[in-house]
Design brief:
It is a single chain. This protein is mainly α. It has one domain. The chain has seven helices and no strands. α1 crosses α2 and α5 packs antiparallel against α6. It is globular. The relative contact order is 0.13.
């Protein structure tokens, strides 16, 4: 059985043997930038921005997405002024979701199928929640690493540091492993049959794409909540 042609691999080779994951990541970024710019134009062209469009439109889809992410961040973070985190986590969710869905298109490989990207996303979240911890607590944030009992501080700091360092790795490996398995299972079964069966696997693959993006973002929000509310 011949290996299906990967469009991103061909683009990477044509561009001078760039890493395939880099080309795929640029493609996702380009799609999201085009979507954001088009949604902004649609909003500016509306006679009254406070009145939603009738029926389905690009502006309507963008507003629903923003409202949903806003509610998700507020519900999971449980922090005052949670809306300030919406741009970061909204961008993160849309990027991962779009990247995941790339794997459902024949001839494309999702960039989240590569640990270079998933670990980079985990590292970005790691830096972000540490920043939020210091932004909310100041230098006192470091005291949270020593636990509630001072006489166990020497032991707790080792556990807390190890736990914090493992978080970006766990975020990255979870996303990579699930998307790697999902893409290869989908490729295998759709290459074996072309009637009815692929529909079921595409439906299952779509669910996996959404769930993995959601799990990644929810965990990242939870880390920010713990850092911001650390005592």
């Amino acid at each position: 059985m011949s290996e299906p042609v990967n469009f991103f691999v061909l683009l990477a080779r044509a561009a001078g043997r760039l890493p395939t994951v880099l080309v795929a990541t640029w493609a996702v970024m380009a799609l999201l930038l085009i979507f954001g710019y088009a949604a902004r134009l649609a909003l500016r062209a509306a006679p009254d921005a406070t009145i939603p469009d009738e029926g389905f439109s690009l502006r309507h889809f963008a507003e629903v997405a923003v409202e949903w992410v806003d509610g998700l961040v507020a519900q999971v973070s449980e922090l005052h002024g949670a809306r300030r985190y919406v741009p970061f986590f909204g961008s993160l969710f849309l990027f991962i979701l779009t990247a995941n869905f790339m794997g459902l298109i024949p001839g494309l490989t999702p960039p989240t199928n590569d640990t270079d990207l998933t670990f980079a996303l985990g590292g970005i979240c790691f830096i972000y929640y540490l920043y939020q911890g210091f932004a909310h607590q100041g230098p006192k944030y470091l005291l949270s690493f020593f636990g509630p009992l001072w006489w166990l501080g020497w032991f707790m700091v080792v556990i807390e540091v190890a736990d914090n360092l493992f978080r970006p790795f766990s975020l990255g490996i979870r996303l990579f492993a699930n998307m790697f398995a999902d893409h290869h299972v989908l490729t295998l079964f759709t290459s074996l049959t072309y009637l009815l069966v692929p529909i079921a696997f595409y439906a299952l693959g779509s669910i996996v794409c959404v769930v993995q993006a959601l799990v990644f973002v929810i965990l990242a929000i939870s880390y920010v909540r713990m850092a911001a509310a650390a005592h």
